[in-house]
């Protein structure tokens, strides 16, 4: 499932190599580092891909202070769904993507941040 609405774009990929390739494709189409996010169920894997692809991390500016603090106490699945919804996706979309992340896939999201 790919989401290509005007608010945000998301694509599920099988591995980190494909995720980096997708990030590079999106960069060549005009997205910047600040517009691109990589999410994986495994935090270490996510960190390695984020570093290798030089993308933004979902953080305080996307989640808000209370969301970021709450994520410290949420399960990884709950935190991932919250991160995905904080980037403009519905709860149903977030649940779908998180379930796919459970199978080892990687999610690349492109969202133009307001200027």
Please tell me about this protein's structure.
This protein has one domain (3-110). The chain has six helices and four strands; from the N terminus they run ββαβαααααβ. Helix 1 (16-28) packs parallel to helix 2 (43-53) and helix 5 crosses helix 6. By secondary structure, it is α+β, with helices and mostly antiparallel strands. Residues 1-6 have low confidence and may be disordered. It has helices at residues 16-28, 43-53, 60-63, 65-71, 76-86, 91-102; strands spanning 3-4, 9-13, 36-40, 106-110. It comes from Paenibacillus silagei.
Key attributes of the depicted protein:
115 residues, alpha+beta, four-stranded antiparallel beta sheet, 6 helices, 4 strands, 15% strand, globular
Briefly summarize what is shown:
The chain has 115 residues and is of the alpha+beta class.
Supply Rg: 13 Å
Major sheet characteristics: 4 strands, antiparallel
Oligomer classification:
single chain
How much beta, percentage-wise? Answer: 5-15%
Q: How many domain modules?
A: 1
Strand order of the largest sheet: 1-2-4-3
Q: What value does the average pLDDT take?
A: 82
What structural category characterises the helix and strand content? alpha+beta
Total beta strand runs? 4
The helix tally amounts to 6
The helical percent reads 40-55%
Organism: Paenibacillus silagei
Domain General stress protein 17M-like: 11-104
Protein name: General stress protein 17M-like domain-containing protein
InterPro entries: GSP17M-like_dom (IPR025889)
């Amino acid at each position: 499932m790919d989401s290509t609405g005007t608010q945000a774009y998301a694509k599920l990929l099988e591995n980190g190599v494909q995720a980096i390739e997708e990030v590079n494709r999106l960069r060549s189409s005009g997205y910047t580092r600040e517009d691109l996010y990589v999410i994986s169920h495994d935090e270490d894997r996510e960190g390695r891909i984020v570093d290798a692809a030089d993308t933004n991390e979902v953080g305080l500016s996307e989640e808000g202070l209370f969301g970021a603090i709450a994520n410290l106490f949420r399960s990884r699945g709950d935190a991932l769904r919250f991160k995905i919804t904080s980037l403009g996706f519905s709860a149903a979309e977030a649940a779908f993507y998180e379930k796919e992340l459970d199978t080892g896939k990687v999610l690349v999201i492109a969202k133009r941040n307001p200027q």
